[in-house]
Amino acid sequence: MTFRSTFNDTLDPLIVGVLGDDTVTVDGTSVSGVWRESFVEVNGVETTAPTFTSLTSSFPAMSHGSAVVYDSANYTIVGIEPNETGMTMIVLQS
Q1: Can you give the residue range of the structural domain that contains 89?
Q2: 20, 28, 37, 72: least buried by Cβ within 10 Å?
Q3: Residue 50 CB neighbour total at 10 angstroms
């Protein structure tokens, strides 16, 4: 077993379990993870946008334009950023 697979299979779920204090609904599926306002750059313009990070395997089949609900507010996925360690951050727009 490689370090990466050990990390992805063992530590990622543990990290999300401890730090994942938020839940969103993505296309009707509940996902636990971390919600925050993150720095983003779009066409040279720097700003912040709501983001949500969780285990890649926790997300349903999603795409740009998928519906997300957090704290009774509706959002749309405008960015999907897997980090190649088993975690994915989605960038949202209200």
Answers
A1: 3-93
A2: 72
A3: 19
Cα separation, 51 vs 78, in Å, equals 10
35-65, pLDDT tens digit by residue? Answer: 989 888 878 889 889 999 998 888 988 999 9
Q: Using alpha carbons only, how large is the chain's radius of gyration in Å?
A: 14
Three-state DSSP at 9 gives helix
Sign of dihedral through CA atoms 21, 53, 77, 48? Answer: positive
Count the alpha carbons within 13 Å of 81 in the hemisphere toward its beta carbon.
11
How far is the CA of 74 from the CAs of 17, 65, 82, in angstroms?
A: 24, 12, 22
Domain count, the chain: 1
Among 25, 3, 29, smallest CA distance to 72 is for 25
What is the domain-level CATH number for residue 53? 2.40.10
Structure tokens at 82: 């897997």
Q: Which tokens in the block code for residue 31?
A: 């996902």
